[in-house]
Every structure is written in structure tokens, then in C-alpha cells.
Amino acid sequence: MELDELKAIWAKHDERLERTAQVNGEMLARWGVRNSLKSLRVLFGSVLFEAAADLVAIVLIGSFAADHYRNAELLAPAVILGAYAIAIFAAMVGQAVALAAIHYDEPILAIQIRLQRLRERRIRTTLGILLFAPLVWLPFTIVAMQGIFGVNVAEADPVWLVANFLFGVAVIPVGVYAARRFGPRLKASSAMRAVADEIAGRSLAVALEDLAAIGRFAGES
């Protein structure tokens, strides 16, 4: 057997080994992606539960508004509270749709981009809920007290009501300023990243970490 024939046989052998290693690497990466996406089922169930709870709240608030549609001092807080609940419900539905659209057979980078966008969306949603909570706590108190105990808090001292409403309004620009002023510094903090992961859902953070490791493995393969 001549040297050229040996070289040709050796080249084919190397090519076959390389192809086998590539296939095995892709299979292992895909298996890892599938397992990492399984951790998102917990998050998906949590999002659906939040959406269902918001839907129940919307129905109850709508029923309250229908019962007191002739009473403006009770109807107005119900409308504000209902709008708040509807916004949260829409955000939860959007997140559920985004989670349902992720498939393990997509490229790893595409899945990472989807999950990162979802993480950012969940953080923005949670911060928005916390930011506007002071504005709706008074309408919530009025609706809850009337609906549960039959006590019309809206008939309390107007000065007290106005002061509480203005306090809720004042908190919003303060929160926005604090986020813009200190946000870039906090992003570099590992502690704040951990808080952000908890807000976004720990299972989402775990999936992102797994996909990053899988992406490095696939690149090395």
C-alpha cells in the first residue's frame, strides 16, 4: 500500500471521527437544551396562576363596579383598580405566550435571546407593579372595605383622601428618578443581579445559565 493511499484512508478516518464527534456534540447539546427548558415549566405554571388570579380580580372588580355604577365615589376607585388589574393580566398573558413559543429545536442562541428578553420583560413588569402600587392602594382600600365590610371609606375626611392620593402620585417620580440615578450602578452588583433573578423567576435564570454552558460546549465541540 502506497503512502498516498494511506494518507487518503487516514483522511477519511479523521473526517468520519470529526463528523461523529459533531453529531454527538449536537445531540448532547440538544438534550441539555431540552432539560433546561423543562425548568421553565415551573415558571410557566406560575405565570398562568398569576394570570388566573388577575382574571378573578378583574371579574370581582367588574362586579363591584356594576353594583355601584351610580355612586361615583365608589365607581372611580373601582375603574382605577380594574385598569391596574387588566394591565397586570395582559402582562402575564404576554409572558405565557412568550414561554409557550420557545421550542428546544431552535438554535441555542435564539433560545438565549428569547429567554433574556423574557427575563427583562418580567423585571420591568414587576418593577411597574411595585412602582404604581402606591397609586392604587387607596382605590384598593376603598373597594375592599366597601366590598368586604360594607364600610364606605370614600366618605372619610376629604383632606385625608387627597393627602393619601397625592402621596401615591409623588412616589412615582421619586421611584423613576431613583431607578435612573442608581440603576446603572446596581446592575453591576452581584447582589442586585440575584434580586433581579428572583424577580424574573429563578427557574428562568437557571435556564439561561444552562443554555450559556451548553452554548460554550457546542462551540468547543
Description of the molecule:
The protein has helices at 3-38, 40-67, 72-100, 108-149, 158-187, 190-200, 202-220. Residues 20-29 have low confidence and may be disordered. Helices cover 88% and strands 0% of the residues. The protein has seven helices and no strands. Helix 3 runs antiparallel to helix 4, helix 4 crosses helix 6 and helix 4 (108-149) packs antiparallel against helix 7. By secondary structure, it is an all-alpha fold. The radius of gyration is 27 Å and the shape is elongated.
Can you give the mean pLDDT?
75
Number of strands: 0
Secondary-structure class: mainly alpha
- Quaternary assembly: single chain
How many alpha or pi helices? 7
Q: Helix share of residues?
A: over 70%
Computed CA radius of gyration, to the nearest angstrom: 27 Å
Q: How far from one another are the termini?
A: 34 Å
The shape is elongated
The secondary-structure element order is HHHHHHH
The major beta sheet can be summarized as: none
How much strand content do the residues show?
under 5%
Topology:
Blueprint: H1 3-38, H2 40-67, H3 72-100, H4 108-149, H5 158-187, H6 190-200, H7 202-220
